């Protein structure tokens, strides 16, 4: 009888440890997310399942997940960091006056025949109308520039609202890949 109680206690401890580890990993380190919508096409597709890394701060061109004003989580690409001056002119990104290449858009730009993928704008044309990305915030855009609700519409995103960055698509199996 004592041996049976001991075995039940051991199984209970193992189960509690497993549940605790799962909770810690899920809420503090990594979390799954499902891409909802077409705003990150052609990089990400509607229904792609990804892993969000909650460790570290986002860097330029990272794909991040954040809490949007509509009480919904968005997935977008970081274009501007705190202190950056952002401008688009003739479908070219300028950060602090320097042109930046966006190789992740090359495929999509080739498919567009009627005008630029990204309309001209400056940071002052967006909500908030500031000259530079404010401290503690990032400027984000979807890769599907013509059909993305991003910082051009909702303003910059507070780093406090960022859940984490993501680059690993794990589902569907045929599309498993690391995205850049």
From TrEMBL:
<dbReference type="GO" id="GO:0004252">
    <property type="term" value="F:serine-type endopeptidase activity"/>
</dbReference>
<keyword id="KW-1133">Transmembrane helix</keyword>
<keyword id="KW-0645">Protease</keyword>
<protein>
    <recommendedName>
        <fullName>Signal peptidase I</fullName>
        <ecNumber>3.4.21.89</ecNumber>
    </recommendedName>
</protein>
<dbReference type="InterPro" id="IPR019757">
    <property type="entry name" value="Pept_S26A_signal_pept_1_Lys-AS"/>
</dbReference>
<feature type="active site">
    <location>
        <position position="76"/>
    </location>
</feature>
<dbReference type="GO" id="GO:0006465">
    <property type="term" value="P:signal peptide processing"/>
</dbReference>
<dbReference type="GO" id="GO:0005886">
    <property type="term" value="C:plasma membrane"/>
</dbReference>
<feature type="domain" description="Peptidase S26">
    <location>
        <begin position="8"/>
        <end position="171"/>
    </location>
</feature>
<dbReference type="InterPro" id="IPR019533">
    <property type="entry name" value="Peptidase_S26"/>
</dbReference>
<dbReference type="InterPro" id="IPR000223">
    <property type="entry name" value="Pept_S26A_signal_pept_1"/>
</dbReference>
<keyword id="KW-0378">Hydrolase</keyword>
<feature type="transmembrane region" description="Helical">
    <location>
        <begin position="14"/>
        <end position="35"/>
    </location>
</feature>
<keyword id="KW-0812">Transmembrane</keyword>
<dbReference type="InterPro" id="IPR019758">
    <property type="entry name" value="Pept_S26A_signal_pept_1_CS"/>
</dbReference>
<dbReference type="Pfam" id="PF10502">
    <property type="entry name" value="Peptidase_S26"/>
</dbReference>
<dbReference type="InterPro" id="IPR019756">
    <property type="entry name" value="Pept_S26A_signal_pept_1_Ser-AS"/>
</dbReference>
<keyword id="KW-0472">Membrane</keyword>
<dbReference type="GO" id="GO:0009003">
    <property type="term" value="F:signal peptidase activity"/>
</dbReference>
<dbReference type="InterPro" id="IPR036286">
    <property type="entry name" value="LexA/Signal_pep-like_sf"/>
</dbReference>
<feature type="active site">
    <location>
        <position position="39"/>
    </location>
</feature>
<comment type="similarity">
    <text>Belongs to the peptidase S26 family.</text>
</comment>
């Amino acid at each position: 009888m004592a041996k049976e109680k001991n075995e039940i206690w051991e199984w209970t401890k193992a189960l509690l440890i497993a549940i605790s580890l799962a909770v810690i990993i899920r809420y503090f380190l990594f979390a799954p997310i499902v891409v909802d919508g077409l705003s990150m096409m052609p990089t990400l597709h509607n229904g792609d399942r990804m892993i969000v890394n909650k460790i570290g701060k986002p860097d330029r061109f990272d794909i991040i997940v954040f809490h949007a004003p509509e009480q919904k989580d968005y997935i977008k690409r970081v274009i501007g960091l705190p202190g950056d001056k952002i401008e688009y002119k003739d479908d070219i990104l300028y950060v602090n006056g320097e042109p930046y290449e966006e190789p992740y858009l090359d495929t999509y730009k080739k498919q567009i025949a009627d005008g630029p993928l990204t309309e001209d704008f400056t940071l002052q044309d967006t909500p908030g109308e500031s000259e530079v990305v404010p401290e503690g915030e990032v400027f984000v855009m979807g890769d599907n520039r013509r059909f993305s609700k991003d910082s051009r519409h909702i303003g910059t995103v507070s780093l406090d609202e960022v859940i984490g960055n993501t680059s690993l698509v794990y589902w569907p199996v045929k599309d498993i890949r690391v995205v850049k």
